[in-house]
Amino acid sequence: MSITELRQSDILAKGEQFHFSRTVLTRKRPKTLHDQDYYELFWLHNGRARLITEAGHMTLSEGDLVFLSPEFPHALQGIGDESHIINIILRRKRIKDLVERFPEAAHYFSGPKTLPVRVHRDIRHLSRLSTSAKALEAAPRTALYLEAFLLPLVAELALEAREETGALPDWLSAALLRAEDPEVFREGAAGLVALCGKAHAHVARTMQARLGQTPSDYINALRMDYAARQLKGTPDTLAEIADEIGIHNMSHFHRLFRARFGMTPRHYRVKHQKGVVQPV
């Protein structure tokens, strides 16, 4: 399926921080996906819909709230009776500034090309969301009114997520425990998903909703923590350590390690290793 590009400069006037719209989705299958350089959130006010991506599709029902990152091609299609969505387009810089001030929002407004985050709102939450949306719809398109809408919403979702983290499904809890074995995380995200005994998409959605991480994020964190222990406690070379954790591209290993610890593996070893003969 071909992809068309949408840009915030074509949608938002100068000074506008967001765009608000209400849409009834067509039931015709989209001929193209669209990519975008802005953040977006929408929710299904009534009916059912299909979020179509390059990897497949996600079926949405009334009350589903979806956060979309930039550079994630997608399209929407209505299913059955009238499918009504409320959509808010958000200027990229405005969301970047918000996440810098409130890191908790990063789970919902993650970096480009990341999977959508879907959260279901029951009738009580949906009613409150609709009331807030009416106020936003009538407000000036400035940062003040946008944040007056976003911050209570994100705070509410973050509190709910914290309350739910202790109640992981048994199949996921068991898999995460076993994933700490190098024999498992050496196989990457596929090793974790295999332990779960569920479809990759289901595992990814559950982990994103409960832990704020994809299977790859979780496994790579385990890999890097193991690598750090090896760097501190063994004379193994960097290539040997990378191979041991199942990463055979050294550039990729360095990128993941720097992202986790803020320094290169070699710098980490020099800083932390004591009493171990340094490898040549």
The CATH class designation of the largest domain is Mainly Beta
The name of the CATH topology of the largest domain is Jelly Rolls
- How would you sum up the global shape? globular
End-to-end Cα distance, whole Å, is 51 Å
- Structure class: alpha+beta
> Segments where pLDDT lies below 50 for 5+ residues?
276-280
Report the total helices.
12
What number is the mean pLDDT? 90
Number of domains: 2
Sheet with the most strands?
6 strands, antiparallel
Strand portion, in percent? 15-25%
> Which sequence of SSEs, written as H and E, runs from N to C?
EHEEEEEEHEHHHHHHHHHH
Helix percent reads 40-55%
Q: What would you report as the Rg, rounded to the nearest angstrom?
A: 22 Å
User: What CATH architecture of the largest domain do you see?
Assistant: Sandwich
Number of strands: 8
Structural summary, described in words:
- The protein starts with a strand and ends in an 8-residue tail after the last helix.
- With 280 residues, it is α+β, with helices and mostly antiparallel strands.
- It has twelve helices and eight strands.
- The chain is globular and about 65 Å long.
- It has two domains: 2-164, Jelly Rolls (Sandwich); 170-272, Arc Repressor Mutant, subunit A (Orthogonal Bundle).
- Helix 5 (170-178) crosses helix 7.
- The strands form two sheets. Strands 2, 4, 5, 6, 7 and 8 form a six-stranded antiparallel sheet that branches. Strands 1-3 form a two-stranded parallel sheet.
- The longest helix is centred in the middle third of the chain and has 22 residues, at 143-164.
